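Subgroup meeting minutes
Present: P.N., E.W., G.H.
Scribe: E.W.

1. P.N. recapped why we're keeping a running log of single-chain structure predictions: easier to compare across weeks, and new members can see raw inputs and outputs side by side.
2. G.H. added today's entry (68 aa).
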Amino acid sequence: MKRHVFGPVPSRRLGRSLGVDLVPFKTCSYDCIYCQLGRTTSKTVERKPWVDLDVVLDQLKEKLNTHP
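Output recorded in log:
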């Protein structure tokens, strides 16, 4: 199963933070030549539910319980 919540990761402003990824890899409305992730493979401006929010919320609860 894809993990949509990752971390904790170091944050200069907050110390530690969790990352939440709600769109598929390299889905973007731009194709910036300087993007650290490479070329955009799915260029779109369409708004749609990319992931099941219940899955994301479950993963977030799991992370918060293991990394208080």
